Amino acid sequence: MSEQTPPAPGGFGVGSHIAGYRLDEQIGQGGMAVVYRAHDSRLDRRVALKILAPDLALDEEFRQRFIRESRAAAAVDHPNIIPIYEAGEADGVLFIAMRFIDGRDVQTLIHQQAPLPAARVCDIVTQVASALDAAHAHGLVHRDVKPGNMLRDATSGRAQPDHVYLSDFGLSKQSLGTSAALTAQGQFLGTLSYVAPEQIEGRPVDGRTDEYALACSAFEMLAGQAPFRGDDSLAIMWAQLSSEPPSLTGIRRDLPAAVDTVTAKALSKAPDDRYGTCLEFATALRQACGIRTGSTAPGKVEPGPGATRAVRPDELAAASGAAAASAAGGPPQGPPAATGRAGTSGRETGPPESGEAETGATRTGMVPAGPGGRSGAGPARGGQPTQANRVPGVRPTRASPTPAWSRPRRADRAAAVQPDGAAPGRPAAASPPRRTVSPGRGRPSRA
Questions:
Q1: Per the structure, how many domains does the chain have?
Q2: Residue 276, in any domain of the structure
Q3: If you compute the radius of gyration of the chain from its CA atoms, what whole number of angstroms results?
Q4: Is residue 139, in this structure, part of any structural domain at all?
Q5: What is the DSSP string of 212-248?
Q6: What are the distances in angstroms from CA 434 to CA 83, 334, 351, 378, 445?
Q7: Distance CA 138, CA 5 (A)
Q8: What DSSP letter does each residue of 262-329 carry, written as one string?
Q9: Residue 272 placed within a domain
Q10: Would you call 331 helix, strand, or coil by DSSP?
C-alpha cells in the first residue's frame, strides 16, 4: 500500500499536450494523480485536467472501471458535483477533464481558519451531503470524501461564503459487488484519515461509507483536527477500526452537547448504526448546532427592512394607562415603556433627520408627556407642527384592540375627554390658545 506523492505522471509538465489539452499550470498533486489547469484547444476553455499515475493504467480492471464510472459520474446532474467533460486514456495515462473551479478547497480553508464556525461547517456539509445522496441514487459510491475534494467556487455569487463542488468521482466505485480497497498495483483507494472500517477490511460499501468520511471531514472542520490520528498509516488504520471518536465538545466548549451524539452515530463502526443517508446526518448536525436553514450564525436572525415585533400585554397595558393619564392631565401610570428614537425600534441609527422628534419616542409610537403631563404637540427642532401623539417620519399603524382589563373606567373615560376645568357631561367652552414651552428647547409654541 502506498500514499507516496508520485512524480509527474508520464513525464508530462507545463507546456505539454495530452488528448487535445495544453497543460498550463500544476495546481494540485496527490497520492495517485496530478492536477493541471489546462486549455481545451477544441472549445477554447479552461479546464482542470487530472492525470493519474501511469501504473494505474497497467491495472486493467481499474482502467476500465475508471473510464466507465467517470462517464457515469458525468451523467449525474447536480449543482454540487463538479461537471466532468471527458475521461479516457491517452499516451499511456488515464486522464479526466473537469470544470476549472476558481477557488481553494476546504482543506486549505481548514489550514487557514480552523476551527470553522458551526454555521459555515453545516452549510458546507449540507451541500456535500446533497451531492453524495444524488450520486448514491445513481449507484455510485465516492470512497474518497475528504476536505481536499471539496472545492470552493469563489465566483458563484451565492450569499453564503462557499459554493462547494465535490470532485474526484472518477475514483469512485459502484456500490454493487465492489469492495476491494487496493488496486492490483498496491494503490490504496481512499485516504486513511477519512476511510470507513468496512472499506479498510474490504467488505461491501454503500452510501453510508461516504457518510462516515463526511462525518470525519465535518469533525475536522469543527475541531481543526481529524478524529482519528496516529504517528503512521498503520496507527491511523487501527484507530479507524477500533477507537471511539473523541468528544467534539471536549475540544470546542462552545458547541452543544448534542453535537457529540450526532457525530458518534455517523462515525459508528457498523454501517447499520449510522444515519440512513448523508442528508440525514447533515440535518441532524445542523439541528444539534442550533443552526436554522440559511442562517450564518447560531440562534441569530437579523430583522429586515420594515420588520415588526409583537407587543407584550404588559407593554400594551402600560401604554394604554399612560395615554389615559396624559389625556386626563395626570401623571402616567405603570412602568415606563422602553424608549428609543422614532423609527428605530429602540436601536441607535445616528442623528435624527430634520423634523424628527429627539425626545425619546416610545415603541408604541406616542410622544412622551411634556411638563405638566401634557403631550408635546409643538414643532420639534423647527419642523412643521404635528398633531398630538404623532411622531414625524413614522407612519401611523393600525391600532391593536385594547384588552378589557386595561381599559380605563367609565368615569375616567368621561373625564379624559374633557379639557381642564370642564364638567363631565357638558360641552366645553372654547378657550383661547395658551402658550406653552416645548420640552428641551425653551421656545414657546402653541399647544
A1: 1
A2: yes
A3: 34
A4: yes
A5: HHHHHHHHHHHHSS-SS--SSHHHHHHHHHHPPPPPS
A6: 79, 29, 31, 12, 9
A7: 32
A8: HHHHHT-SSGGGS-SSHHHHHHHHHHHHTPPTT-SSTT-----TT---PPPHHHHHHHHHHHHHHHHT
A9: yes
A10: coil
- Please identify which residue in the block is written with the cell numbers 445522496: 133
In the block, cell 458546507 appears at 124
- Selecting among 105, 144, 162, 168, the annotated active-site residue is 144
pTM of the complete model: 0.61
In one letter, which amino acid is 446?
R
Asked if residue 337 lies in contact with residue 346, where contact means CB atoms within 8 angstroms, the answer is no
pLDDT along the chain (447 residues), means of 10: 48 86 89 88 94 83 82 88 90 89 92 95 97 93 93 70 82 47 51 94 94 98 95 93 94 96 97 98 97 54 40 56 58 47 41 40 41 45 46 49 51 48 50 52 49
Cβ burial of 17 (10 Å; 0-12, 13-18, 19+) is middle
Dig out the grid coordinates for 291 from the structure.
443552526
Closest Cα to residue 216, out of 165, 172, 274?
Answer: 274
**For cell 444524488, what's the residue?**
134
Residue found under cell 496507527:
235
- Contact assessment for residue 65 and residue 72, using Cβ atoms and an 8 Å cutoff: no
Type of residue numbered 152: R
Residue 172 lies in a domain: yes
The residue type of 343 is G
144 given a catalytic annotation: yes
Please spell the DSSP secondary structure of 111-143, one letter per residue. HHHPSPPHHHHHHHHHHHHHHHHHHHHTTEE-S
**Residue 218, domain extent:** 9-289
What CATH number does residue 186 fall under?
1.10.510.10
Residue 53 CA to residue 93 CA, distance in Å, equals 7
Name residues whose C-beta falls within 8 Å of residue 17's C-beta, 6 or more positions apart in sequence.
Answer: 23
CA 45 vs CA 38, 39, 98, 99, 100: distances in Å: 9, 6, 11, 9, 9
